[in-house]
C-alpha cells in the first residue's frame, strides 16, 4: 500500500496537514486535537522510525520553547502543540524519504521555478540535518545518555551550536559537489499526479479546509 503512494502525493498530503494546522484559530484545542490524531496516523502510515522521530522532535522543541515561552503560558502551550503537530507530519515525511529524492516530490508543486530551486536546496540541507541528528544520537548513546531524557540533556546550547555548524559545513560541501557535477538549478525529474491522486488531494484539501474553517466558526 505504501509503495503505491508517490513521493509527490506524500508531500502534498503532508503540506495540507501542516498548512491546515498552522491556520487554526488560536486556542482551538479541539480542532488541534483532530489534526494531532491525523498527524499520528500519518506517521504510522509512513512507517517513520519512532526513535529518530522523537530525537529530532526533542531537538526542534528546544528551539521552539525558547521562542514561545515569553509569549505567556496559555498562548505558548497552544503554539508549541500546534508546532509539534506540524513537525510530526513533516519529519515523518522526511524520515521516510529516499535519499536525494526531495526534488522528485517537489516537481509537482505549483510554485515559481526559483522558489522550487530554493526548496530543493533546503530539502538537501534537511537531509544532512537528519544525518547529523543520527550521528549525535549515536554519540550520546555511547556516552551513556540513552533514551529521550538523556538525549535532551545532551542537547545543551553548546552542542546545538556545534550541531548546526557541522550541518552547515556539510551542506556547503554538498552544494559545492553539486555545482562541480554540473548542477545549474534545474530539477532533473519530471513527474505528474495521476487522476486518483488528484482526487485524493481534493478530498484531503476539503477535509482540511472544513477543520480549519470550523475552528473559527464553531469553536
TrEMBL record:
Q: How does the entry describe its membrane topology?
A: Multi-pass membrane protein
* InterPro entries membership: ABC/ECF_trnsptr_transmembrane, ECF_transporter_component
Lineage top rank: taxon = Bacteria
Q: Does the keyword DNA damage apply?
A: no
Question: Which of UniProt's keywords are assigned here?
Answer: Cell membrane, Membrane, Transmembrane, Transmembrane helix
Q: Sorted alphabetically, which Pfam families does this protein's record hold?
A: CbiQ (PF02361)
UniProt xrefs under PANTHER family = SLL0384 PROTEIN
Task: Identify this protein by name.
Answer: Cobalt transporter
Q: Which organism is it from?
A: Mastigocoleus testarum BC008
